[in-house]
Amino acid sequence: MKQSLACFALLASLPLLVGFKFIDPPRAWHQNDLPLEYWVGDAQPAGLSQSDTLEGIEQSFQNWSDVPCSPLEANFAGEIDNDTSGFGRPDITLFTFDGGAKDDLGSGPLAATVTHSSNDVVTHNGQSFFRTTSMNIIYNEGLSWGMPEDIASPNCHNRYDWIGVTTHEIGHGYGLGHSCDDGEPCPDPILRWATMYWSVSSCNDSQQIPGEDDHAGINAIYGVSVDFEVEGDGDQASLVGGVPLTITVSVPEDFQGDQYSRYEWNFGDGTIQEQDADELTPVSHSYEEEGQYTISLLVEGQDEECGGFFEADQRKVGVVLACEEPQPEFGYQNLGEHRVQLENTSPLGAFGCITGFEWWVDGNEDSAQSSYEPTLSFDEPGTHSVTLRASGPGGSAEYTAEVIVTADADEGGCDCSSSGRVKGEPLPLLAALLLLAVRRRALRRS
Q1: 3-class SS at 305?
Q2: How is the beta sheet containing 330-336 ordered, strand by strand?
Q3: How confident is the model at residue 108 (pLDDT cuts 50, 70, 90)?
Q4: Which terminus of the chain is more exposed, N or C, with fewer CB under 10 A?
């Protein structure tokens, strides 16, 4: 698992550098994983009741949900034992409090965030992000915390803004770095006013509501997006088969509108086709060569609310498998004592285009065995006819060769893969369809 530690420091504000950054390496929640669920430790941070604690965290998540074009949502899953040794857990999104005496954070940071991610890559607007799987946030309970009315009160007494700090740390959990970092020049006041600015003083509520720079960062990670449909999604037979294989792609109405100006299809076989937004109709494409193909759609447009010009990129991995008819071949080697090792030399082609092999001897198909390279035993020397059938989405085919069985082992083997091939009847595609369906579910869920 990859980790990133982002600390919200307790130091005085200094003038700092240019706009929002991503945490390093960039990571983002997959929109299929939203709304995320989070757990909160059952202890109370100093100065807060448990109800205030939960209300503040909920409001902080809502602050990011309220950013224009933001798809971000979160649900409270429940309270959990406030064991700070769990800080850094990769399995759940967790809020914990250091207990003061434990002094996990020392005297510097107000809070710290760790994010975990898988090796899965999410592509959004041309930027690649590792797929976030959890965020953990821990607070320095050695400090005194307050809700908005406490921070705004003349009797604030050096409390720190619970909602502002939490909003900042959740921003890290969503993938944002600081608008400016410690020691960098930061001349633009928009950056110093951002929720993701690197520091804040006590009795300061300026970071509760994400600002313009924060909006731009969230839109860069989660803003305008697209999706598309492939004819037969859910009906794998139209996406797997023999060549030529024709599929149809289309853009749902949800991803059409004035903000989209140009669509570019890449069918994964070297074919690229552009469409203007005002001529958006389903597009058919035929695959003429065997292969497993990735289809992607690049969309350009303009949306001022979501940051101006955008490029949104969507791809569907392994969605098309086009297969030629198999070409079974084999050789063999005598092992001695009338035993023969069959050597499968059939070209395998694209992954998934051969789903099964069957062998039988002397035309007795009832005795066929399914194996990649079986060993055959005979009672006595002699010549036998061996048949290999290979099957897949492109159909099935058979190859028959004479095998000379000897009592002694061959020194160099025998290449018997030159006989003619006998075309068989196409077999059902169920095995190939199940294989592809499993792979696609894994790609969506991993």
Answers
A1: helix
A2: 330-336, 339-344, 375-377
A3: low
A4: C
The answer to whether residue 376 scores a pLDDT higher than 80 is yes
- The HSE-up count of residue 54 (CA atoms within 13 Å, CB side) is 14
Domains of the chain with bracketed CATH: 2-222 (3.40.390.10), 229-323 (2.60.40.10), 330-432 (2.60.40.10)
pTM, rounded to two decimals: 0.59
Q: Is the pLDDT of residue 104 over 70?
A: no
Instruction: Judge whether 5 and 110 are in contact, CB under 8 Å.
Output: no
Phi, psi of 21 (to 5 degrees): -130, 165
Which pLDDT score is estimated for 32? 80
Instruction: Supply the DSSP symbol for 422.
Output: E
Cross-strand bridge partners of residue 117 = 2, 132
Q: How many CA atoms lie within 13 A of 117 on its CB side?
A: 25
pLDDT at 251: 92
Average pLDDT, whole number, for the chain? 82
Helices (H), ranges, 178-285: 189-192, 212-222
The letter for the amino acid at 37 is E
**What letter does residue 239 receive in the DSSP assignment?**
T
- Dihedral sign of CA atoms 209, 73, 446, 234 in order: negative
